[in-house]
Write a sequence for this structure.
């Protein structure tokens, strides 16, 4: 996903997942994970500092880790919602009155 986005074959990435609320409801969520066309700003200053690695390398690493954490959170939310649904489904036959 990130390789396709960086290559330019994708201009947007949408991530849809179930947000775990509690054992009963789960909400569907679809935030935009990334959008193309980010503007770059060049800082103008007279300082004599040298930072390594450069800002572009740091920003690329941080944004990559951020997107990976968003995808990981979505996976965890889906797993939690599935486990809650299974728990509720298994509990229903035990609490249903028989005639």
């Amino acid at each position: 996903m990130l390789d396709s986005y960086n290559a330019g074959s994708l201009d947007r990435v949408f991530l849809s997942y179930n947000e775990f609320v509690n054992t009963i409801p789960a909400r569907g969520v679809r935030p935009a994970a990334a959008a193309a066309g980010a503007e770059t700003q060049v800082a103008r200053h007279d300082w004599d500092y040298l930072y390594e690695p450069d800002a572009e390398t740091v920003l690329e690493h941080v944004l990559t880790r951020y997107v990976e954490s968003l995808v990981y959170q979505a996976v965890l939310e889906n797993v939690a919602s599935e486990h809650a649904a299974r728990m509720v489904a298994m509990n229903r036959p035990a609490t249903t009155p028989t005639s």
